[in-house]
Amino acid sequence: MANVDRPHGLTPVGHLLGLPWNGALRRCLVDADYATALYIGDPVDIDTTLVNKDATAKRQTVMIATAGNASGIYGVIVGMDPIRTDLSKQYIPGSTGGYVYVCCDPYVIFRVQDNGGAVPTYVFPGQTCNLASGTGSTRTGLSGWEMSTTTGTTDDDQLLILNMADIEDNELAVNAEWDVLINTHRLKPNSTGAGIAVGCIGVTSA
């Protein structure tokens, strides 16, 4: 039976150390001038616009991540504060602002649907790939981001594929669900390109 095409962004499902994911999150700011809507399951990065920063310096300010090689990811939106003027919305519309709850543990395992760009094969586990951006659903509040089926082995790809998710009705075919690690995470060591681990890459604001 064909897999259902139902993108949902990235969903935390476990921890690389064998522990269950305990739901630990960080509350982050989305500035009211930020024009892009954000959804549950969206990957986010540190906002690089100075005037968008939290004036109290108590919260990290985030923006949508960029899909593609060498693009950093701070974490994934798992929840958000309600918009008190419109409780029907389960996402943050553009130019609205608010607070999101971000899973930013670099060793959390995420589940993500592939984008069906090619038929996946049994050699995918252990390979790397990038994310594919997508538009979230204003009805469900879920992200439209997916995993690209263009795979490789480079250390600047955004995801490391662990395995196809061992769940019912998940076939090795287009739109399969995969368990992945974020490979270009802001909070874990990065490579110099020569396979040498170096410190975390910082982000400045302009």
In words, what does this structure look like?
This protein is an all-beta fold and 206 residues long. It has one domain (11-198). 0% of the residues lie in helices and 31% in strands. The chain has strands at 11-15, 26-30, 43-46, 62-64, 75-80, 98-103, 108-113, 128-132, 146-152, 159-164, 177-182, 190-191, 197-198. The strands form three sheets. Strands 1-7-11-10-8-9 form a six-stranded antiparallel β-sheet, with no helix packed on it. It has a five-stranded antiparallel β-sheet with strand order 2-6-5-3-4, with no helix packed on it. A hairpin with a 5-residue loop joins strand 12 and strand 13 (197-198). It is globular and about 50 Å long. The N and C termini lie far apart (50 Å). The mean pLDDT is 92. This is Putative structural protein.
Bin the strand percentage: 25-35%
Query: What count of helical segments does DSSP give?
Result: 0
Largest sheet: 6 strands, antiparallel
N/C terminus separation: 50 Å
Mean pLDDT: 92
Gross morphology is globular
**Class from helix and strand fractions:** mainly beta
Number of strands: 13
What oligomerization state is this entry in?
single chain
Percent of residues in helices = under 10%
Order of helices and strands: EEEEEEEEEEEEE
Radius of gyration (CA) equals 17 Å
The parts where pLDDT drops under 50 for at least 5 residues are: none
Order of the strands making up the biggest sheet:
1-7-11-10-8-9
| Total count of domains | 1
